[in-house]
Amino acid sequence: MKPFPKLLFLILIIYNPSYANQIKSEFEYKESIIKSHQSILFEFSQSPIVISSLIEANKNNLGIVEIMQLDANWQLNRELQTSVMINPITTKITELIENKSLNIAEMMVLDINGVVIAVFPKPTDYWQGDEDKFQQPIHLNGDYVGPTKWDTSSQTYSFFYSILIRDENKKIIGVLATGLDVTKEYLNNLQKK
User: Fold this and answer.
1) CA nearest neighbour of 42 among 132, 134, 163
2) Which of these, 147, 118, 116, 148, lies nearest to 134 by C-alpha position?
3) How many Å apart are CA 108 and CA 53, to the nearest integer?
């Protein structure tokens, strides 16, 4: 955080305790959603189909030029969209998203370069390698919790919770980025105002 935003943040908290409570409330809510989903997401990320698909995708390592070309044509390339949206991994992703006891709005399995190998619903980009949901877990060497914002692909207020996917030798082979829905929480906060 830059100095000015930090100062503004501190002023907001000091002179507006309800802002501090709102931040605390959002943090606690996100933390509880993460805790209720962690084991399911970890188990999914370690499933044989995810691990073997990532190992295979990483063997077929695309160069950055080819990745950029595929990304540039993503919205028009129905064959590519079908390959990452209709496969055995997305079958499980869809089951998890449709499970009403979970708050999953979207999921994507990304290879070591940030290329989508399985996803639902369709994202705006094929290549996620330039986004925090991919870069931050690798940089942190651990879990990443993104900011809450409106997501057009899932039509929800959500945040990304990303975890590293490792092979049996503990080598990073990809990232599972999951959009966790907090729309209900945001609507409740709007009603309170």
Assistant:
1) 163
2) 116
3) 13
- Domain annotation for the chain: domains and CATH numbers: 39-192 (3.30.450.20)
The one-letter amino acid at 65 = V
Task: Please count the helices (runs of H) and the strands (runs of E) in the chain.
Answer: 8, 6
Cβ count near 85 (within 10 Å) = 19
Q: Is the dihedral of CA 157, 75, 57, 85 positive or negative?
A: positive
Q: 9: Cβ–Cβ under 8 A, 6 or more apart, which residues?
A: 1
165-193 pLDDT tens trace? 999 999 999 999 999 998 766 555 545 55
Evaluate whether 64 touches 112 at the Cβ level (below 8 Å). Answer: no
Strand pairing class (156-166; 149-151):
antiparallel
pTM summary value = 0.83
> What does the block give as tokens for 17?
């305790």
